[in-house]
Amino acid sequence: MLTTQQLNDIEQNPYKADFPLLAQNPDLTFLDSAATAQRPEVVLDAERTFYTTMNANPLRGLYRLSVEATEAIDEARKAIARFIGAVDQEGNPQGNQIVFTRNASESLNLVARTLGPKVVLGPDDEVVISIMEHHSNLIPWQQLCRATGAKLTYLRLDDDFRITPEEVAAKIGPHTKIVSVTQVSNVLGVQNDVKAIARRAHEVGAYMVVDGAQSVPHIPVDVRDLDCDLMAFSGHKLGGPMGIGVLWGKSEVLDAMPPFLTGGEMIDSVTETDAVWAPVPQKFEAGTQDAAGSFATKAAIDYLAEKGMASLEARERELATYLTDRLNALPYVDVIGPKDGSRHVSAVAFNVRGVHPHDVASILDMSNVCIRAGHHCAQPLLNYLDVENRATCRASVAFYNDKADIDRLVEGLDKVWSIFGGSVGTKEA
């Protein structure tokens, strides 16, 4: 349970004014940040600034605008690298380890299509993922294993929704070549010990890939400390524009991977019969990129860094705890995942007994409460947990939420329950 001070902290909200959509719609309760975050004013300003002050194709011109655009994107890479701890021994950000893609899904597909051939998988090899993966970190590996004959092995959860050390030791073994695991589940909100999983992967000579789509926006991430080989995440989930993804990788790993897409700007030279690839990151960035989006993503990163990720994480933990406690107290609601709210990073899945999640979300929308409903691109997880209808409601918080948002959600759930003939009450102790 939260202390009085913690409750007071999440009741105050110094952030909503920074987000135009929220500021202009004070009656809106947005609890779907696991799907996409709201954008602060500085991000919207940055995208416009790019187009009004330096609109030119990076790398393709020697004139001032193009040079400025190129420098802006280089600075964006450095800011992102610094944000996730991709720095050298002197603390200098390794911007050349940051590859821009369209989204985390494309980043993970890039890895599966290029790391797989480098590893040269065969029928005796295994790729290990967890049962809680988003489809973006499942289907690419599923398809790779189907094409190569390799085995796709799943790390499964115990009754406390944890991947135990025993499970890691049993599933990651001498035949494992690639391990790819989400740091935070987009359904359960639980955080996996990817550092320990990476340690085991490297013990057996496997590569460690991390899906950071749900972790980078909500908790401090240090890729050097995690010792993973590659990490994927999206700009839009941390307040940047849609259409920008990031792939970080150790230089030696990225250098060894072949290009995913070919065409303009990813080459060093071309003849009628052959081509030489450009160095990383350009090797993976064929064609015209969303330069304005990359520039605006830097603005989102700068905004989060200025506020302090540790401080934002603490606020979100308190919000998630309050959310989980309020849901646990409703006699007609079942939380899907840990009952301890402090274990949830942003997302809390739940169901209203006897009511389909789609109906719950639709009725809540009538009260201007926005949540997610469905399988959340994690169908194997919901099958594994034997969730009714293979769907859940999901409320996900961000630092710009407050206690009143959660209270309005609960009021809306009471309305849902009354519509379907239930009686509102409190669970017995």
Helix-strand layout with pairing:
Elements: H1 4-11, H2 20-24, E1 29-30, H3 41-53, H4 64-83, E2 98-101, H5 104-119, E3 126-130, H6 139-148, E4 151-155, H7 165-171, E5 176-182, H8 194-203, E6 207-211, H9 223-226, E7 230-234, E8 245-249, H10 251-256, E9 267-270, E10 275-277, H11 291-307, H12 309-328, E11 333-336, E12 347-352, H13 357-366, E13 369-370, E14 372-374, H14 379-384, E15 392-396, H15 403-419
Parallel strand pairs: 1-13, 3-4, 3-5, 5-6, 6-7
Antiparallel strand pairs: 2-8, 7-8, 9-10, 11-12, 12-15, 14-15
Helix pairs in contact: 1-12, 3-11, 4-11, 12-15, 13-15
Structure description:
It contains 15 helices and 15 strands. The two termini are 14 Å apart. The chain has helices spanning 4-11, 20-24, 41-53, 64-83, 104-119, 139-148, 165-171, 194-203, 223-226, 251-256, 291-307, 309-328, 357-366, 379-384, 403-419, and strands at residues 29-30, 98-101, 126-130, 151-155, 176-182, 207-211, 230-234, 245-249, 267-270, 275-277, 333-336, 347-352, 369-370, 372-374, 392-396. Helix 1 crosses helix 12 (309-328), helix 3 runs antiparallel to helix 11 and helix 4 (64-83) crosses helix 11 (291-307).
